[in-house]
Amino acid sequence: MTARKLLIHAIFLALLIAVMECAILWALVIAPADREQGDVQRIFYFHLGSIWPAFLAFFYVLYGSIAYLVTRKQIFDHRAFVAGQVGLAFGSLVLITGPIWAKPTWGIWWTWDARLTSMLVLWLIFLGYVMLRDYIDDATKRERLSAILGIAGGVMVPFVYLSTRWFETQHPSPVIMGDKESGIKDPQMVNALLLALAAFSLLAIYFWRRGIELVHSDARLQALRRRTLDLEENV
Amino acid sequence: MSSPAISTLKMMLAKDLVREMRSKEIFLSSFLFSVILMAAFHFASAANRMPIEYIPTTALWVCILFSGTLGLNRTHASELKNGCFRALMLAPKEAGWIYLAKVTSNALLLGFTLCLLVPILVLFFQFNPGSALFPLLLSLILGILGFVAVGTVIVAVTANTRMSDILFPIIQLPLQVPVLIAGTQATQLCLEGKTPTDWWQFLVAINVVYLSIGFLVYEFLLEE
Amino acid sequence: MKNLGYLASAYTAIWLVLSFFLAKLYMRNQKLNREIDQLETRIKELESKRGSGAE
Amino acid sequence: MSFRVHLEAVSKNFGEVQALHPLTAQLGPGERIALMGHNGAGKTTLLTVIASLSKASTGNVHYLDGDRELKKKPEIRQRLSLLSHQPMLYPDLSILENFLFFSRMYDLGLSKDAILDHLDAVGMSGDPNRLVRACSQGMTQRLAFARAMLHRPELLLLDEPFSGLDIRGIERVQKLLRDFSGTVVMVSHEVDHCHALMDEFWILRRGRLVKKLQRTQYDRAQLEAEFRSELPEEL
C-alpha cells in the first residue's frame, strides 16, 4: 500500500515538474512578447495561472464545509481547511504579481479594478477563515464553526465577484481593458497560458494533498498525546 | 408550521425590544457612536475640500457598517450574559426561527438608530432626500437586512473565540463588501433621482441567499 | 526589452511565496513526525511497564 | 412518563484532554442519580452531553419514549431541563418577564397567576417585577431552579443546585426535589445532599465511571468513605 502510494506520489511529482518546466519555458521564451506591453506581459501567464486554483480552492471550501456539516466526517473538515490555506497562498500570488504587472502597464501600483478588488476581498475573507481556528480554544467546536464560516465565505465568492464587476461598469476606471485581448492573439501565447494554468493547478493539488497529510498527522498526534496522558495516569 | 414560527418570532422580538428599552445599550453604542463618526467625517473631508453633497452616502454607510458591527456585538454579548444563549439552545424551538427572530430584532434596532441619524445627516451635510424618500428607504431596508443577515451568523461564530471583540469585525467586514457596494450605489443613485433596479435585485438576491443559509446553518451554532 | 526588472521581481516573488509555503509544510511535517515517533516509543514503554506491573 | 436516555459508549475529548472516557449507561424513568467526583472528573461534561447541548466525540446518545426513539431536537428538549451554574435568565428583564418569555418558549401559555404560583414554591413570588439584575445570588439561584422546573420536565439535570442558597432556599429546593417524580441527575460535592435526595451514586474519576452505588447498601458515612477513596492525588 505504501509502496503504491510512493509510486503515485513520484509519478505525480515528475508530471508536475515536467509541466512546470514547459510552462516556464513557454511563458518566458517561446511565447512572443506583447506588442504594446513588451516582456512585462509575461507576468500575466502566471498571474492568471494562480487566480484559477485560488478560486477553485475557495469553492472547495464551500463544498467541504457543507459536506462536513452534513456527514460530520473529519476528513471533509481537513480538506476544506487545507483548501482554504492553498487558496490563500495562491491568492497572495495574485495580489503580489498584480501590482507588479500594473505598475509598468498602467503606471500605478494599485487600482480598484474588479479583478484586483475582488481578489483582495476574497483573500481577506479566507484569511479570516484560516485564522478563526487558532482562536477557538474548545477543540470540539473548531471544525463546526470553521465549516459555518467556510459556507458563509464560499457563498460570498460570486457576490463579491459580481458586485465588484458592476461597481466598475458604473465607474469606468481610467484603464483600457484591452490588455487581456491583446495578450492571447498569438497561438503560442495561448499555449503558454494553458501550460501555466495546468502547472499551477497541479501545484495546487500537490500542496493540497501534502497539507491534508499534515493535518492528518496532527490529529493522530493529538490522539497519541491523549493515550500517553491516559497511560501515565494509570500506570 | 407557521404558527409556532410566528410565535417564536413575536416573543423573541418582544423580549429583545423590552431589553433594549431598559438598557439602551444598542442606542448608546450605535447612535452616539454614529454621531461622533459623522463629525469625524466632516473634519476629515473638510481637509481636502471635498464637496459636502458627496459626503452623506459615504457617511451613512460607514455609520451603518461600524455602528452596526458594534451593535451586533453588543446584542450578542447581552445574549451570552447569564448563559441565556444556552437557554435558547435548550428551548424546544427550531433553530432557523430563532435565527430569523434575531435577524428581525437586530434589523429593527439598527433601523431605528438609522431613523434618528437621518435628521443629523440633514443638519450636518445638507442631505436632502426630497422626492426620493421611498426608493431611498427601500435601499436602506434591503441593505440593513442584508448586513444583519450576514452579521447575525458571524457574530455567533466569533463569540466562541478568545478576542471575539476584535475577531468579529475583522472576519465580518470583508464579508459585508457586496452589501456595502450595492447599498452605497443604490443610495447614491436614489439621491441622484434615478431608480437603481439592478442594485435592488442584487440586494434581494443577497438577502434571499443569506437568510436561507442562516436559517439552515443556525442549528449548528446552537450546540456547545 | 524594457521593464525586465518588473518581470524578474514578479517571478522572484512567485517562487519566494511558493517555496516559503512548501518549506513551511515540510518543516511542520518533520516536526510532527518526530513527535509522533517520540510518543509511540513512550507509549510502548508505558504499556510494557503496565504489563509487568500487572503480573 | 416513560422518557429514557441510553448512553452508548459516549466519550468526549477537548483536543488532547479526554474529559470523558467511553461510558455506557441508562437513565430510566424515576431514577435518581447523583454524579460525584473531584474537580475535572467530567461530571459537568457528562451532564451537558445528556442534555443534548454538546455532541459526544464518539458514541451515541439515544432518547426514547417507550419504544419510540425521539430524533427531533425540539421533541427531546421539551422533555428535559438543565440547571447549570449560569442562571439562564435575562438580567435586564424582570422576574415575571423572564418567566413569561420562557413559558411561551416552551408553549406552556401560563398566565401571570400561574407563574406567581410557580414562583411561590421557591419563595420568590413577593416582588415579581424586580429585575433579575437586582436579585442577590441566592435569589437568582432559586429563580434558576424554578425556571428549570417550569415546563415540568421528565428529566431534570442539575449542576450544583444548592450553591449560593441559604438554609430556607435549600429546604425549599430539597422539598421540590423530593416531590419531583421524574428522573433526576444531580452533580454535587455535598455528600449530605447526595445521600439525602438520591438513590444511586455514580462516582467519576478522571473521566471514568468507576463505581455505581445504591443508597440501600450504603449509609452516609460509608458513602463518604467510598467517595474519598476515589479521589486522585492532587496534581
Protein described:
- The complex is a heterotetramer of chains A (235), B (224), C (55) and D (235).
- By secondary structure, chain A is an all-alpha fold.
- About 5% of the residues of chain A have low confidence.
- Chain B has one domain.
- Chain B contains 9 helices and no strands.
- Chain B starts with a helix and ends with a helix.
- The mean pLDDT of chain B is 88.
- With 55 residues, chain C is mainly alpha-helical.
- Chain C has a domain of 33 residues.
- Chain C has 1 helix and no strands.
- Chains in contact: A-B, A-C, A-D, B-D.
- Chains A and D meet through helix 7 of A and strand 1 and strand 2 of D.
Oligomer description: heterotetramer
Please estimate the helix content of chain A: over 70%
Indicate the proportion of strand residues of chain C: under 5%
- Low-confidence segments of chain A, given as residue ranges, are 173-183
Task: Please report the number of helical segments of chain C.
Answer: 1
C-alpha-based Rg of chain A, rounded: 21 Å
User: How much helix, percentage-wise, in residues of chain C?
Assistant: over 70%
* Distance N to C terminus of chain C: 82 Å
Write the layout of secondary structure elements.
The complex is a heterotetramer of chains A (235), B (224), C (55) and D (235).
Chain B: H1 2-23, H2 25-46, H3 55-80, H4 84-90, H5 95-125, H6 133-158, H7 164-175, H8 177-191, H9 197-221
Helix pairs in contact in B: 1-5, 2-3, 2-5, 3-5, 3-6, 3-8, 5-6, 5-9, 6-7, 6-8, 6-9, 8-9
Chain C: H1 4-54
Chain D: E1 3-14, E2 17-27, E3 32-37, H1 43-50, E4 58-65, E5 68-70, H2 73-77, E6 80-83, H3 95-105, H4 112-120, H5 137-149, E7 155-159, H6 167-179, E8 183-187, H7 191-197, E9 200-205, E10 208-214, H8 220-229
Parallel strand pairs in D: 3-8, 3-9, 6-7, 7-8
Antiparallel strand pairs in D: 1-2, 1-4, 4-5, 9-10
Q: Which short descriptors sum up this protein?
A:
heterotetramer; A: 235 residues; mainly alpha; 7 helices; D: 235 residues; alpha/beta; 6-stranded mixed sheet; 4-stranded antiparallel sheet; 8 helices
